[in-house]
Amino acid sequence: MRRDVFQAIADPTRRQIIGLLSRQTLTLNGVAEHFAVSRPAISKHMKILSQCGLVTIKQRGRERYCEAILFKLQEVTDWAEQYNASWTTRLDALQGVLETEEEAVT
């Protein structure tokens, strides 16, 4: 199954994991300690994040260390920016109409 960054950030737990790993590298157990869900559930979330390219998991000895790859979030920023520009234009136009209406009333 092909996974993308949008699928990864659709889940609030995965967004929290990304936020946590953006501040520090943690083991899988270290990540799991921050959540009130089972270790297998965290592993499933980590697998999805890894498949989407937002997290890398590296084996060091007996531990698996997880690190965020934040540049992949640029895809989300680029997608949202197109709507931001559109809404800015629309809201500026609305402001102009409201100012014109206000001037007509006074």
Description:
With 106 residues, the protein is α+β, with helices and mostly antiparallel strands. It folds into two domains: 5-70, Winged helix-like DNA-binding domain superfamily/Winged helix DNA-binding domain (Arc Repressor Mutant, subunit A, Orthogonal Bundle); 73-105. Helices cover 63% and strands 13% of the residues. The chain contains five helices and three strands, in the order ααβααββα. It has helices at 5-9, 12-23, 28-32, 39-51, 74-105; strands at residues 26-27, 55-60, 63-68. The protein has a three-stranded antiparallel sheet. A hairpin with a 2-residue loop joins β2 and β3. The longest helix has 32 residues, at 74-105.
Using brief descriptors, characterize the structure shown:
elongated; Arc Repressor Mutant, subunit A; 3-stranded antiparallel sheet; alpha+beta; 2 domains; 106 residues
